[in-house]
TrEMBL record:
This is Methionine synthase reductase. It is found in: Cytoplasm. Residues 9-152 form the Flavodoxin-like domain. It comes from the Eukaryota.
């Protein structure tokens, strides 16, 4: 066996928004430096690999979507391995390592990865490397980077064990792989030297280059003692840097004529059907002096086959801000090319594994259409993108700072000044004016512009042919890293779109309501399989929804009211609603809740106002979780004795966690058990789909 043999392992990724794929590509790139060959595929490409016969180690990188589901690309794979007829030794031959991606803001953290991991174990597969669970809430790289670092030794040991099992000599393999760390070290050193230099002066040593870069920062250090997006301080400013490998370019762009039409927006979704529907009504639910502006929009779906249940969500296909698109075109010096159609081709000889035409960009589109409807120009740039931008930057100091931000040594600066500050490409191009990326680089690194999901706030039974939804206009205030304030991509666009409906003329500002509109938006279904009313109407349920979290419960109550009108002989269980907002007179979103209470649809309505002052001797509770505690016996009765349901909708971090803590305390007190036992009971309720959440961070 020759010493330069490259051992193969299978590398599978399951991605929703591109994170898992980008990490898999990083593993694929590093594999060569370690004397290994990664056979990389999307987990959905089941015709290109076969785990039933796979003999080599398998590495899986998988994200989580929704409230704990595997990504769409993994649905078929998960369905296949969850086949109950598979024997417990089905994958007894399989050696694998799994890296799960998730967000601890959500209850079912990394559940996509955990689901696959658990099932593979049940079918007899063995870990050759410990499972990694990376948390996007604090920064994926905190787990991803060390997990990848340790992967190579684990693979080496797996290959040695494999050869021993096959009864072959492991000496050649050992020799081959023992040389790999040395190769990797040389490549890493070469990378440091190459990327720390200010100019292309190959004769200089890395020490001299590091010193020169330190000199570059001395001027700024005299006045700036604190780090910022554009400025670093020791030790980062004086460190030799470990930076990612330069991602290989794989796209070529050619501009064509300006004749023709852009594709329909329906071509932007990969599955399902998009419907273009008119906005028939817009109502501002909050007063002008409320901290947040909340709008309710009504859509006319009568002429479509779009169907929904209360509790479902749907997605709005939205564009990037037109001014930001124009600004980006101006910086890229492509303003005159905006209406030109763009031909995208794969670069001949590219080293990128599996290079393909981006599926989220229709074949014949203009440049302006691509930047407006296809690419998420507000996306937080990943480190690989920063690494590519280094090569497009001419100023030495700016180049060094971009290197720091994508380096391992600058990880905390990346988290603080880019990730946590929600910095986007435009912010970077303003902060680093000598950076002039090419269009192909943007297409390669900017992710797909995702449609935005919203909870339905109506019932098709109560309002046939209508669909309502509620949202806050998201505001991003100006900051040191972002000199201008911005509104949310979708909420800002919707607010501008329906402005004529809200203010048809100056005299009707008091009503804030319009009657008709020709404005249309494109939507598609995103059914929720669990966040629905109990199938048995006699079962009681509790709803907790402060702020816009009340949205799906309006649909619940409308539906329940109509059922009560149509089926007077049915038995209906009691209903509880806990609602909260800041001020009773400014942002009490649905004061018509009183009507549901009066007609018996709603049995109990409990409200609280967190910012209103009180003259009462005992101050009323400020938050919904505090109000829930006041009704401990009733909540316990509904959940434990009457086998009812408990729904929570709204903010995850500041509300939903507090509500679940309150329920645990209630269960502990009413069941007379310790907190751990109460937590187990709540977990059982979750598994039985009787404690349900629709939350966001």
């Amino acid at each position: 066996m020759c010493c330069d043999l490259k051992r193969r392992f299978l590398l599978l990724y399951a991605t929703q928004k591109g994170q898992a794929k980008a990490i898999a590509e990083e593993i694929w790139q590093q594999a060569g430096a370690h004397g290994l060959e990664a056979d990389m595929h999307c987990i959905s490409e089941m015709d290109k690999y076969n785990l039933e016969t796979e003999k080599d180690p398998v590495v899986i990188v998988i994200s989580t979507t929704g409230t704990g589901d595997p990504p769409d690309t993994a649905r078929k794979f998960v369905k296949k391995i969850q086949d109950k007829t598979l024997p417990p030794d089905h994958f007894a031959h399989l050696q694998y390592g799994l890296l799960g991606l998730g967000d601890s803001e959500y209850t079912f953290f990394c559940n996509g990865g955990k689901t696959v991991d658990r099932r593979l174990q049940e079918l007899g597969a063995q870990h050759f490397y410990d499972t990694g669970l990376a948390d996007d809430c604090v920064g994926l790289e905190l787990v991803v980077d060390p997990w990848i670092d340790g992967l190579w030794l684990a693979l080496k040991e797996a290959f040695l064990l494999q050869k021993e099992k096959e009864g072959m000599s492991s000496n050649a393999v050992s020799n081959s792989l023992s040389a790999a760390p040395h190769v990797g070290h040389e490549l890493n050193l070469s990378s440091e030297v190459q990327n720390l230099k200010l100019e292309d002066e190959r004769a200089r040593s890395s020490d001299v280059l590091t010193q020169n870069l330190g000199d570059t920062h001395l001027v700024a250090s005299a006045t700036d003692t604190e780090p910022s997006l554009v400025h670093s301080v020791p030790p980062v400013s004086q460190s030799a840097l470990n930076i990612p490998a330069l991602p290989p370019e794989y796209i070529e762009v050619q501009f064509q004529d300006t004749h023709g039409e852009n594709p329909p927006l329906s071509s932007l979704i990969s599955e399902g059907t998009a419907f273009e529907v008119p906005v028939t009504k817009a109502v501002q639910l909050t007063r002008e002096d409320a901290i947040k502006t909340t709008l309710l929009l009504e859509l006319d779906i009568a002429d479509t086959v779009f169907d929904y249940q209360p509790g479902d969500a749907f997605c709005v296909i939205c564009p990037n801000n037109v001014n930001e698109v124009e600004e980006l075109l101006h910086i890229l010096r492509l303003s005159e090319k905006g209406e030109c159609f763009v031909c995208i081709k794969i670069k001949q000889g590219t080293k990128k594994k599996g290079a393909a035409h981006p599926q989220h960009i229709p074949e014949r589109s203009t440049l302006k259409f691509i930047l407006t409807w296809c690419l998420e120009i507000r996306a937080i740039p990943k480190k690989a993108f920063l690494r590519a931008l280094v090569e497009c930057t001419s100023d030495a100091g700016e180049k060094r700072r971009l290197q720091e931000l994508c380096s391992r040594q600058g990880a905390s600066d990346y988290t603080r000044f880019i990730r946590d500050s929600n910095v986007c490409l435009l912010d970077l191009l303003h902060a680093f004016p000598s950076c002039r990326p090419s269009l192909n680089l943007l297409i390669e690194h900017l992710p797909k512009l995702q449609a935005r999901p919203y909870s339905v706030s109506s019932s098709n039974l109560y309002q046939p042919g209508k669909l309502c939804f509620v949202f806050n206009i998201v505001e991003f205030p100006a900051s040191p890293t972002r000199p201008v304030s911005r509104k949310g991509v979708c909420t800002g666009w919707l607010a501008k779109l329906v402005a004529p409906l809200l203010h048809p003329n100056k005299s009707s500002l008091d009503t804030k309501e319009g009657c008709s509109s020709t404005e249309k938006i494109s939507i598609f279904a995103r059914p929720n399989n669990t966040f629905h009313l109990p199938a048995d109407p006699s079962v009681p349920f509790v709803m907790v929804g402060p702020g816009t979290g009340i949205s799906p419960f309006i649909g619940f109550l409308q539906h329940r009211q109509k059922l009560r009108e149509e089926h007077t002989d049915w038995e209906f269980g009691e209903t509880w609603l806990f609602f909260g907002c800041r001020h009773q007179d400014r942002d009490y979103l649905f004061k018509q809740l009183q009507c549901f209470l009066e007609n018996g649809t709603l049995t109990h309505l409990k409200v609280c106002f967190s910012r209103d002052s009180s003259t009462a001797e005992v101050a009323p509770p400020k938050y919904v979780q505090d109000v829930v505690r006041l009704y401990a016996k009733e909540v316990a009765r509904v959940l434990l004795k009457e086998r009812g349901y408990f729904y929570v909708c709204g903010d995850k971090k500041h509300m939903a966690d507090g509500v679940s803590d309150a329920v645990v305390d209630i269960l502990s007190m009413e069941m007379e058990v310790d907190k751990l036992e109460a937590m187990k009971t709540l977990a059982t309720l979750r598994e039985a789909k009787r404690y349900l959440q629709d939350v966001w961070s």
